[in-house]
Amino acid sequence: MEMQEKMAANGVNVEALLGARQALTEAPEAARFKWRATSEWVNGTHSRATVHGFFGLGGEQQHRQAFTFDTDHPEVFAAEDNGATPVEMILVGLAGCLGAGIASVAQNRNIQLRSVKATLEAGMDLQGILGIDDAVRNGFDGIKVHYEIDADATEEEIAALVAQSQKRSAVFDILTNPTDVMVTTRKS
Amino acid sequence: MNVSRIKRPLAGIVDVVVIGAGHSGLAMSHALSSRSIEHVVLERGEVANSWRAERWDSLRLLTPNWMSRLPGYRYRGDDPDGYMTVGEVVEFIGGYARHFAAPVVTQTTVTRVEPASDGYRVETNRGDWLCRALVLATGAFNVPVVPKVAEGVPGGVAQVTAQDYRNPAQLEEGGVLVVGASATGLQLAQEIHGSGRPVTLAVGEHVRMPRSYRGRDVQWWMLETGVLDQRIQDVDDPVRARRVPSPQLVGTPERATLDLNALKAQGIDLVGRLAGIRDGHAQFSGSLRNVCALADLKMNRLLKLFDEWAERTGTDTGIGPAERYPDTDVGAPPSLGVKLGRDVRTVVWATGYRPDYSWLDVPVLDRRGSLRHDRGIVDAPGLYVLGLPYLRRRKSSFIHGAEDDVAELSAHLVAYLDRAARPRVAGMTGRG
User: Which of A21, A84, B197, B409 has its CA at 20 to 30 Å from residue A187's CA atom?
Assistant: First the structure.
């Protein structure tokens, strides 16, 4: 086999991704996914959420196994701290999404990654959720993400990887653009 | 066939009808004339109509005069490095039509096109034309594209598209939200802000470019390095390449660079892409920094390509040293929303255009309403399109870009006419 250039090995199957892009361009219905989670209150501020099934490619799909996530609040909130706070889960989601994007783009650009480390920080003023000041929003007043990346690439190529992964990130979009949220209830 | 249509008056029968007497349609007419092919150019208004009727007052071409050339015709004025005003563009294109006595039929609006027994029937408000081949040269900028979120603009707030905008005097006093960061959006934002109306500019993905680089117009670099000649079949993602917004450029006598840093320094408020309008509040995306970073990175890649070309070709006379520009500085965290009505009296949509094919009754549109074509050869016999962005090359929608496209597409068209005219061999029914 003739190898002009060594292919990067980042554990991403780019051929499959590009194949999927082609297939979903021609079959737009298959591109419509529904992501799902269930959640159950445990006690206090502690809840446990489960993800398992989702819909996509025209049918019901499943993760390899069910994954559960505990959310709670730390002891300074007079809670039991059985898990990450829900707002920290948002940071977890953002990091996961951008990381996946960086690896995919790097693979597509044949850039070998050695280490990708992200630090995320979100500011939040509790006067919002505590209802102390109506002018303060409940959520983050901003998110800062910093990447330390070791790769076979120039500083500029690395900046381009991170910029491109934001451009194609679902969670980045969810956080930077408004999303309609509908919550319904029923007494059981 | 509809009986009433058969009774429609016939204006003429020709080999080729070209629809649109802009620079593309006229360039095709020139090619057909030089091959003595009988044709007409149908024009709804006057030659260069969209330049006469649908452009703002201060607009100038984004390319320097020396680049303005059409087959057999070129700029011969005394300001090769200047940029034509709208009036000068009208005069330039009008001069071209007179130059080779193009068979233009003005004040003739095409209302419908349908396949006919041996070509197409082109219905107009002044009689119908029958032709064997048809060239669509109506351009890409027929209908302003206004995003769906516009539905949420409150009643009392005025809305203007770039097609309707002429100058700031037509706008109410008070704040203006300009949506879109292409050449159009930035030019209108700057002009409106200069009129004393506070401007907020909503910025999505954009293309940043200096007006001149190392002492030469950026278009000189684009041309010399071959960037403008890049062919659509060599592009990674042709669909995307055809959708890229126009670079942030303006043609002024001062050759000023128009970028977001310049607008910010003038006091224009930069915000993210307009993401939604809810209860009269415009919501802006939090992605401003990223779209700016992407544009900075892409500009620097382009400049690097220029530098490498200069080094490789040994081009060092007439150009200055390599330059780099400060990254786009959005400053303090950008505003994520603005109340329409109080702070913003007018929304200016600089969100692009699309072609209008509503009159084209030939099954050549895809499910998104785009023309199905291969580099201008439309998916119907003898049907061609010209002048769309990146139709065949990056320069396809530029005035100087018409020449190469027309040379190739007219050759294809002539071969088609020759083939179709060849006497059929007995027993064969196909067109070979």
Answer: A84
- B178 and B126 part of one domain: no
Using CA coordinates, name the residue in chain B closest to A25: B239
**Rounded CA gap, A113 and A9, in Å?**
8
Range 123-162 of A in CB contact (< 8 A) with B: 142, 156, 159-160
Please give the single-letter amino acid code of residue A123. G
For residues A124 and A115, the answer to whether their CB atoms sit within 8 Å is: no
pLDDT, tens digit, for every residue of B165-205? Answer: 999 999 999 999 999 999 999 999 999 999 999 999 999 99
Query: Mean pLDDT over all residues of chain A?
Result: 93
Structure tokens given for A156: 């500029």
Same domain, A96 and A141: yes
Q: What is the CB neighbour count within 10 angstroms for residue B13?
A: 12
Q: Please say whether the dihedral angle defined by the alpha carbons of residues B370, B372, B376 and B381, taken in this order, is positive or negative.
A: negative
Q: Are residues A68 and A139 in the same domain?
A: no
Does residue A9 lie within any of the structural domains? no
Mean pLDDT for B408-429 is 78
Which pLDDT does position B5 carry in this prediction?
56
Residue B401 phi, psi (nearest 5): -80, -15
ipTM of predicted assembly, 2 dp: 0.85
* CB within 8 Å: B293 and A175: no
In which domain, by residue range, is B33 found? 3-142+355-421
Contact assessment for residue B188 and residue B265, using Cβ atoms and an 8 Å cutoff: no
Tell me the per-residue pLDDT of A102-150, one tens digit each, with 9 for 90 and over: 999 999 999 999 999 999 999 999 999 999 998 899 999 999 999 999 9
Query: Backbone phi, then psi, for A108, in 5-degree steps?
Result: -60, -30
Domain coverage including residue A72: 32-83
Whether B429 is covered by a domain: the verdict is: no
Cβ <8 Å between A176 and B276: no
pTM, whole model, 2 decimals? 0.91
**Count of structural domains, chain B:** 2
| B231: β partners | B393
| DSSP state letters, chain A | ---SSPPP-SS--HHHHHHHHHHHHH-GGGG--B---EEEEEETTEEEEEEEEEEETTEEEEEEEEEEEEE---GGGTS---SB-HHHHHHHHHHHHHHHHHHHHHHHTT--EEEEEEEEEEE--TTTTTTS-TTS-SS-SEEEEEEEEEESS-HHHHHHHHHHHHHT-HHHHHHHS-----------
